[in-house]
Design brief:
The complex is a heterodimer of chains A (283) and B (275).
Chain A (H helix, E strand, L loop, with lengths): L11 E5 L2 H9 L7 E4 L9 H13 L2 E4 L13 H13 L5 E4 L2 E4 L2 E7 L5 H18 L3 E4 L14 H12 L2 E5 H11 L3 H7 L5 E7 L2 E4 L2 E3 L8 H13 L4 E5 L7 H16 L7
Parallel strand pairs in A: 1-2, 1-12, 2-3, 3-4, 4-7, 7-8, 8-9, 9-12
Antiparallel strand pairs in A: 5-6, 10-11
Helix pairs in contact in A: 1-2, 4-5, 5-7, 6-8
Chain B lengths: L1 H13 L1 H9 L1 H8 L3 H8 L3 H9 L5 H8 L1 H6 L2 H13 L8 H13 L5 H4 L3 H16 L15 H4 L2 E5 L3 E6 L21 E7 L6 E5 L2 H10 L6 H12 L4 H18 L2 E6 L1
Antiparallel strand pairs in B: 1-5, 2-3, 3-4
Helix pairs in contact in B: 1-2, 1-5, 2-3, 2-5, 3-4, 6-9, 9-11, 13-14, 14-15
Classes of the chains: A alpha/beta (283), B mainly alpha (275).
């Protein structure tokens, strides 16, 4: 399987599309942004104003499909009607890359709308990797899988979380959608050094990066809400990552407490500064 | 172990009693889900609050989005009553689609079978749920192109030879309750009597907003006859004339033509094509 990065153009900096920002983005798509990401579940098989606005934006700038419900790690069969709709959506809008999460979100046919962790076992690696291969073969588009945040282990681990993520990426041949906020959230919740995580990542497989804010419930308990500004420790992880490898694409996820676009653009400019710093790997 | 793990999380999220059982006797509860002592041990140390997070997320995910799709229904019930509805819906395993709009439809279907105590206070609950779901469906209906109207659409003599094209994003419904007027503080059923409320609900072709017209039986019949997309205006009016046998047929036809032009102005009829 060719490296996902070999088949992808550099994305640059993107933003998760929120309806609150659609009007502003249609009026003037900011120069700081090069692409946007959508949850295809919200735009597939629909019409009306929401879809018209999406189509107008998708004609102007590249869009990446980041689904949340393929349930790649589930023991349920893959949702074929959903996959067919997704493929049609990808083709219609000439989407260059699709992604989902290393988790499960359905069981017994019931959809959870939550990203539930898999046990860090070889059984789970083989199971999810096999399904990821089937998905990317079917979609015929470069595909990436994301490390998730979680709050409770799914059983006794046979390996660390980072070894698990790495194994899934390597065994599936997919790209890695690396969420640096999820690394931080998990590092606080489970007490590890985020740098250990970063160092174990297959950096050459990074398709793009997610960055977001979270909510602190307790000193050692963070909730991955995508509803707050990005905090210093998360910026630090991004900085470390940028020092290790060129970042082909990065996007800000903001799904709750949506601020005006200008506030998010401040964070975009922060990313620009990090990416522009001279690095040894750039030489 | 993968199956045990998925079964555990499924139960944790779907069954409210599981979190209480974990609080009371975690070891015993975990034994029901995991055969391996190592797996149980991994979950013994986890603060309950974190496990509770998965249960709580049910109401902020797509089940949370139901609140935005059924705003009037939500405004009429307490938080506890709303949570009860969502939980019962979830327990009955009706959330089988990952697409939010389909979940709304599933929720509306669930409410059509609802037999609980809310019906006493909100006898219009089922019709209201159907109406709110209809609005959401029309908002997201897949677009279909509107026909180009010929020049002759303006000339009265040739008007009757044209075939009207109805807005495809419309629905005609007859409710027992005035669901379009229901809002927070809606009069109790003792004051508002059930009756016959025919509504023509449609998506405005310009603004994409959902609008409704209170349709009298004749307008409802007129729209119904136009639904085939094959009858000329003359055919439609002829059928109505035959059925109703009005005293003044010319006035009846004039009124029919006026109504069709009115429906065109309102965006219910999108255009006309030659027969």
């Amino acid at each position: 399987m060719p490296r996902v990065g070999d088949r992808l153009p550099t994305l640059g900096i993107g933003l998760g599309l929120r309806r609150e920002h659609t009007g502003s983005l249609l009026g003037h798509f900011p120069d700081e942004l090069q692409w946007f990401e959508v949850a295809p579940e919200n735009y597939m098989e629909i019409g009306g104003k929401v879809y018209r606005d999406f189509c107008e934006l998708a004609e102007r700038v590249p869009v990446v499909a980041h689904s949340v419900s393929l349930s790649l790690g589930s023991l349920d069969p893959l949702n074929k009607p959903f996959l067919k709709q997704l493929k049609k959506f990808i083709r219609t809008h000439k989407i260059p890359l699709a992604s989902d999460h290393i988790c499960f979100s359905s069981y017994h046919g019931v959809q959870f709308d939550d990203l539930v962790p898999l046990p860090f076992t070889w059984e789970a690696v083989r199971h999810v990797a096999k399904r990821v291969r089937r998905v990317q073969d079917f979609l015929e588009v470069p595909y990436a899988v994301e490390n998730v945040s979680y709050y409770a282990p799914a059983g006794a681990p046979e390996m660390t979380e980072w070894d698990f993520v790495r194994a899934v990426v390597e065994e599936s041949g997919a790209g890695l959608l690396l969420d640096v906020n999820n690394i931080y959230v998990n590092s606080v919740n489970f007490g590890f050094d985020p740098l250990d995580y970063l160092r174990a990542m297959p950096l050459d497989k990074i398709a793009y990066v997610h960055i977001a804010g979270h909510r602190r419930k307790r000193r050692n308990f963070l909730l991955d809400t995508h509803g707050a500004e990005i905090v210093t420790p998360v910026w630090k992880i991004l900085d470390e990552l940028a020092a290790m490898t060129p970042i082909p694409g990065i996007m800000i996820e903001r799904d709750a407490n949506i601020p005006p676009l200008e506030e998010i653009l401040d964070e975009v400019r922060h990313i620009q500064r990090i990416l522009k710093e001279p690095r040894s790997h750039a030489a | 172990m993968l199956r045990e793990s998925q079964n555990f999380f499924y139960n944790l999220m779907a069954r409210p009693e599981v979190i209480g059982q974990l609080r009371k006797n975690r070891e015993k509860t975990l034994k029901r889900f995991f055969r391996s002592a190592k797996d149980r041990e991994a979950l013994m140390r986890v603060p309950l609050e974190r496990l509770q997070t998965y249960r709580n997320h049910i109401s902020v995910g797509f089940l949370g989005a139901i609140e935005t799709a059924f705003p009037v229904l939500r405004s009429l019930v307490s938080q506890a009553e709303w949570n009860g509805l969502l939980n019962d819906f979830y327990l009955k395993r009706l959330t089988r689609s990952p697409i939010a709009r389909q979940v709304f439809r599933e929720f509306a279907r669930y409410l059509q079978k609802y037999r609980g105590p809310l019906l006493k206070r909100l006898p219009y609950l089922k019709e209201l749920a159907e109406y709110e779901n209809l609005e959401i469906r029309l908002v997201y209906d897949v677009d279909r192109p509107a026909p180009e109207s010929p020049e002759s659409a303006e000339a009265p003599e040739s008007f009757v030879r044209l075939i009207p094209a109805l807005n495809p994003h419309h629905a005609l419904r007859v409710y027992r309750w005035p669901v379009h007027r229901v809002c927070r503080g809606f009069s109790s059923p003792r004051k508002v009597k059930p009756g016959r409320h025919a509504l023509l609900v449609y998506r405005d072709p310009e603004s994409f907003k959902i609008r409704f017209l209170e349709a009298n039986p004749l307008v409802a019949e007129l729209v119904g006859l136009m639904t085939t997309g094959k009858r000329t205006i003359g055919d439609v009016l002829e059928r109505l004339l035959k059925k109703h046998k009005p005293v003044d047929p010319q006035a009846f036809v004039r009124e029919g033509v006026q109504t069709i032009r009115f429906l065109k102005d309102r965006g219910v009829v999108l255009g006309f094509r030659s027969a």
